[in-house]
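Everyone, describe these structure tokens:
***
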Amino acid sequence: MKVGPSSVMRLLRRLLAIFFGVPVLLAVAMSLVDAYRRRGKKSKPFPVTPPKSTPVGGGSLTTYTFGDDLYEDMLDAIAQARKQIFFETYIWKGDEVGQRFKTALADALARGVEVYCIYDRFANLVVAPRFLRFPKGMKVLKYPVYPAGWRFFDLSRYGRDHRKILVVDDDVAFVGGYNIGSPYATEWRDTHVRITGPGVWDLRRAFADFWNLNRRRRLRTSQRPLLIDASSVWEPKLRFHRNVPRLWMFPIRSMYLEAINRASKNIWLTTAYFLPDQDLVDALKDAARRGVDVRILVPLKSNHVVADWLSRGYFSQLLDAGVRILRYRDAMVHAKTATVDGSWSTVGTANIDRLSLTGNYEINLEVIDEAVAAQMEEIFVRDESNSLELTRAEWEARDVHRKFTELVLTPLRPLL
């Protein structure tokens, strides 16, 4: 019996549909079941490190590990604004905390402060439309749900705006993993930093560049370009790395690879979702094999069950290489931080996954400072005290159905 080209193509299409369709259906089913199980559940209390300020160059850097502490200082900074506020967030919930920020920004506008806001519309689809109406005069960029427009073929236009930035005048700036909402105030373990000094100018530029790149240019909905004074002052201990999909710029991944490859003593990394490419996995394995103390802290159970299962697909090779895997319990750890060799640290918005490292708009602060690294190590040790370490024996003893699920979901790794 002859098999024609059309029959072969039909067979290939069916195989591809099975190869990708089954994992997608399984992922959807797992997400629905997990959402049902989580209804009404609250996280338990978890240890936090109080805010601590460290002098860096001509300014200071303050770390936050508890949302309430951070929000109070952010709102205080907004209340003291005299000239200009830049506010950017991925999620902006229409709850009590979200309303406090909206009111604070509106009050600043009423007293003559120029207020610019950016938020991602896709991330806020479930927020009531009335909450996302703002006072006249407030300049708001709603990053669109579908940002590609007619250029649907241009993959560089599909990245989400995952950044979280607040800049007040030329005085103070905040950046890190915290979104805006009541659950993040007390129920999530995240990390944010407050910056004073020359680093504030870098965040001002980061905000203005995003605004100018993504502002609408169509008649009647056009937004004026955001022009700011440039500063020639550089703080050598601080560097901001920005992923810009529209320009195919993804320096955060390179920053991580360079730091990991240079490590000689320790690499302590915290991430909400661990879905790296193989180059990053190999770099971590190589570091562990040359005697570096490599620890990766992830949620025991995150808010995305599929991401948890996909990340487990990397555990065997990491454990074999001597990497320690720590699972944060009782609360969602959403921090995106790392510290290396007691001198290098990073805090930002990018997770160790493909969406963050090669897809979305992200921003990470790189700090070369021993005092800051010591503070980051203190935070990591405190988080480790609330974590369960995954042992090799425990991993090998997992059920057959767990191994099967990990295998079935493997084709989804490149998508997340």
